[in-house]
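Predict the 3D structure for this chain.
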Amino acid sequence: MVVLAAVVLSFLIKTFFFRAFFIPSLSMADTLKVDDRIIVNLLIPEPFGLARGDVIVFRDTKNWLPETSPGPDRGLGGVVEDTLGFVGLLPEKSGNYLVKRAIGLPGDRVTCCTAAGQITVNGEALNETYLNAAEPAWVQPFDVVVPPGKLWVMGDNRNYSADSRAHRGADGGFVNLSDVEGKASVIAWPPNRTGPVDNYPGVFTGVPAPRTAD
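Done. Predicted structure below.
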């Protein structure tokens, strides 16, 4: 009964409040590294709102991820691992999910770049202190206005992130707010990296509200 209660409680928490994910790629380094396990707050963007700078996990409904061939049969161990992931006792593999930082909210104008190579949001140049300092980001010019119900997202490791910039041919590169699973709140594993996932609110403090049509 104790084990059953623990499984049910874990499933409810994973379904309605928090969910664990495994980071498989370099696109968010150094904020998130390969093999990090993160805890995602499912109460964002609903009922609590999303903010610029939040690191979000979203469903890949627009086929951003490359197709992968089925791996070898993992046998009983694979079945057990998938079951534990389903009930929330193990972090889920991020096979159909992506993790990026929200840069533009609905109505925002996001551009690249200033003469200094900075992204601007509603005319305010960003000092993106979360970027991978080991490798300056390549400049990929764009100028977009985020439609209602959408987001513009980018990875912190810009040169290795196939984010909104890389998918402008499909729905403008925007992510549906309805596809957002939640906000990455905590790195839970490995022990030497545990701690909160920073959304760097200071980077966006000077960003004005988007202009409205006359």
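The two ends are 63 Å apart (CA to CA).
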